[in-house]
Amino acid sequence: MASSKLQGLPTELIFAILDGASLRDLHAISQTCQRLHNIATTSRQFWANAADKDILPLPTGYTFDTIPVEQIFSIAARGIGWQKVTNNEPAKPRRYLPYAVEDEKVRLNLLALPGNSWYIEQRVSGSHIKRAEPGWENVAYLIPLPGDTVPNFRGSVIGGGDMNLVTSIRLPGEIFKTQRILHIMKMHFPDERQGPAEPYLKDRSQIVLPHPAFNSIIEDKIFLTATIERSCSRLLLLNRLTNIGLILNYPDQDPDSQEEPTRWVASISLNEKAQKIVVVSLNQGEGDRESGQLIEKIDLVDIPDDLFGEQELGATNTPSEAIWTNRAMTISHSFTVPEYDAKAISHLPSKLPPSAIRLTTFTFKKPENLDSDEPSQIQQFGSLYIDNDNLLVFYTHELDGADINTFSDNPYRANGVSQLLGIERKTKGEILELCFVKPGSTVKQKCRLVPPDDIPGMTGYAVEGFDTTRGRLFIKVFREGEKYIHYAVQY
């Protein structure tokens, strides 16, 4: 629609018309007249429903809802600029920076911190938060940890520059059960536009768990995790304001049973809008113990109303350690992932009812191909929604697994930095071809990257990570007869 027609409309109607537009279109529209430019630079709602909002390269520790609104316009421009590079001619490095040298006593963790080139350097003497960015070489924050700590950091964005950094602490006498105590540090990260500065610790707390756990979700109010014990699968749900928690057991499962399990929780997520915990599990069918075949199921578990209510508003006598109570979980819906059937599964429509809530994505079970000895590399993907208590299942897209080497929705993805799959050592000058799923969409995206070619002594390189929202590549450079160096390359 011409800008002359848009600029005379009420602001609310403009937002409705632009609902679902791309960032590129919104950015272009914002520059057609002064009124639309003013709206774009002062209103969060202008950008809130962009179809590809997830490609925004947000500052460290910020969500879209907490970033200062005056920054959104320039951040959108940067995200759009990088997206133009994909599917075009090979991109050449704008700059690159060596940020670490090979050391057998050092482990670099690129995936722990959701943010702009922050990483954790783990040494025997301690773990430091650092940033792979020019001018930040001397910034190193020593993470304050108890002595017997398992260095398996995980970070999650809270907003406003804050994130929770979580690690595990061993209990005395426990060698293998390493996740019985979670150490939670609320960190604040600096405004990177203002120059080099260390993050700092705002708050710290501990959660003592009744069972070893994995795949934890930690927010200011809620803690959710799943157990990893052999006897049975459970969920642990804690109100962090009252320190009251529930051990949620499957209704068909005896918590004290010593029999071999037939269900394993693969992943969990929290959907507060739907008031559901989404649990993906692998299940052994009756008589399938010998075959080893597992059935993938998605269960929707109700969040208990009595755990989060008015009692937390006036809570003054909060116990110092969490109090846990066993309870059977309430499963409102169950969905067994089927084989893909083009005739039976509807494609995702362009518009869904406003009341529909997206719960999760999944991969359809592969049908057996009796006419071929080679397993198919094609994977079909779907999305699961809930609308007025009804489950909606849609086919979304398919990908050739042989063609994909990184996924933006990889579970190890840290706000852009994705764990790359199948990237072998490359020779000096060899162009890197990447194919990944565009963040926030089902669109396959390709890009070709020219590696740095003037690093002294360079003989080859290997890829360690790729920031899909900022166009930043993290590589390990091999040198003839010398230690390798870690580089951050910006395109």
Automatic annotation (TrEMBL):
Question: Which CDD domains does this one have?
Answer: F-box_SF
Q: Which Pfam families match?
A: F-box-like (PF12937)
**F-box domain location, by residue?**
3-50
Q: Which PROSITE patterns match?
A: FBOX
Q: Which domain of life, per UniProt? A: Eukaryota
Tell me the protein's name.
F-box domain-containing protein
